[in-house]
Design goal:
Layout lengths: L1 E8 L10 H10 L19 E2 L14 E6 L3 H12 L3 E4 L2 E11 L6 E4 L23 H20 L12 E4 L8 E8 L2 E8 L1 E5 L7 H10 L12 E3 L3
Antiparallel strand pairs: 1-3, 1-5, 2-3, 4-5, 6-10, 6-11, 7-10, 8-9
Length: about 240
């Protein structure tokens, strides 16, 4: 299940002024008073994700920005919806934005997905914290960690294992930057400490969709892929044929 949030800036400010941690903090704030108010302190997977703000670019007074929040837990989306639908404004970082629209969505998985935010996986042991294609360059390792994480998340949420019977994505087409590299870096600000998180964006992630795996891909579509989903990484959108 998903929530579409449309926000209107009340002043001009640069895009870098609102990072992923600011969006995450706003969502956690609006979970206060709900059964999810302590979610940020719970160990393990958080089972929600959110997109990059779109359209991209700097914030201009009166020009709307959109955010999609997704979760396989419908009660989580309903809790966020109830709180945000009664809010006139939200705070992102140090800036106030007017809430113009809050809408819930239910989407079905399709045979192809695209990423709405960079995908992050752990680096190989002893080689840093996060994987990069430039430094580590091992596509097989990236796919292995992606699948390992996806299956672990699904089992934790559904209470049962899923056996894909092959690669979870039959075809993967990355978004290649103008410099020929795949890696992108997102600056994160947590408690005044800045660090860069590397990830990769993907134009198409194709799957063999059938009745036996539909629930699994519906879960991935709303839980996100890779790690740091609750910080807005690994967001997926289904693609029309």
């Amino acid at each position: 299940m998903r929530l579409l949030l449309t926000l209107v800036p009340e002043e001009n400010f640069p895009s870098w002024a609102v990072g992923k941690h600011a969006v995450q903090s706003m969502l956690y704030y609006h979970l206060t008073g709900t059964p999810y108010e302590d979610l940020h302190r719970r160990p393990g997977f958080k089972f929600f994700c959110f997109s990059d703000l779109f359209p991209g670019g700097d914030f201009r007074k009166g020009e709307p920005k959109n955010l999609i929040v997704s979760s396989p837990d419908e009660a989580f989306i309903e809790a966020i919806y109830e709180r945000l639908s009664s809010a006139e404004k939200v705070i992102l970082g140090r800036h106030s934005l007017r809430v113009e629209r809050v809408k819930t969505l239910r989407l079905r998985p399709r045979e192809a997905f695209t990423t709405g935010s960079p995908v992050v996986v752990e680096a190989p042991p002893g080689r840093g914290k996060f994987f990069t294609f430039h430094e580590h360059g091992d596509l097989n390792y990236f796919i292995e960690k992606l699948e390992e994480n996806a299956l672990a998340k699904y089992e934790a949420f559904a209470g049962e294992k899923f056996e894909p019977g092959g690669p979870i994505f039959k075809k993967m087409i990355p978004k290649v930057r103008k410099n020929g590299r795949i890696d992108v870096y997102v600056r994160i600000n947590v408690g005044g400490r800045h660090f860069d998180v590397p990830g990769s964006n993907w134009e198409r992630l194709e799957v063999e969709l059938n009745d036996g795996n539909r629930d699994f891909y519906a879960f991935l579509m709303d839980a996100g892929i890779g790690i740091l989903n609750s910080l807005g990484f690994g967001f997926l959108n289904p693609l029309k044929s």
